[in-house]
Design goal:
Shape: globular
Structural class: alpha+beta
Helix content: 25-40%
Largest sheet: 4 strands, mixed
Strand order of the largest sheet: 2-1-3-4
Distance between the termini: 11 Å
Number of strands: 4
Length: about 140
């Protein structure tokens, strides 16, 4: 596997999901500390990282936050961890970490199951603009 930036947190996302792409754009806009890098789950690197941490890459219904050499989070735990790192009002969402993950994952799974129906789906993964290209790992 290629050398990943150790000082960055890597977000693996469903590259064809409109909701997921909107979330990535939101995170980029609010990532004032430049902490995050992004990889589509469908990409070769996304599959390699998923396999490396032991998550079936065929299960692309979850966002994954990977901190190389430290830890990984998925589903609601990843979403809350990302929000807590954005600072400002969004870090307050970290309070929901007190909920059992089984409960918050139920809600997460419900949205994940319906995301294409509610928000639509692209034919292929988004291609970042030249300004955003450095935020995406390939």
């Amino acid at each position: 596997m290629q050398k990943l930036p150790k000082e960055k947190k890597i977000i693996l996302f469903d590259g064809v999901c409109n909701l997921c792409n909107s979330a990535v754009q939101f995170i980029i806009k609010h990532d004032k500390k430049d902490l995050f890098r992004f990889v589509a789950l469908q990409s070769d690197l996304g599959k390699k990282i998923s396999n490396h941490i032991g998550i079936d890459s065929k299960k692309m219904d979850s966002i994954i936050l990977y901190e190389p050499g430290i830890a990984y989070y998925h589903k609601s735990e990843a979403a809350l961890e990302i929000a807590s790192q954005l600072g400002s009002f969004y870090s307050l969402l970290g309070v929901f970490k007190i909920l059992p993950s089984s409960l918050s994952d139920l809600i997460y799974d419900w949205v994940a199951r319906n995301r294409y129906k509610w928000f639509g789906k692209k034919e292929s993964c988004m291609i970042p603009t030249p300004e955003l290209k450095s935020k995406f790992l390939t």
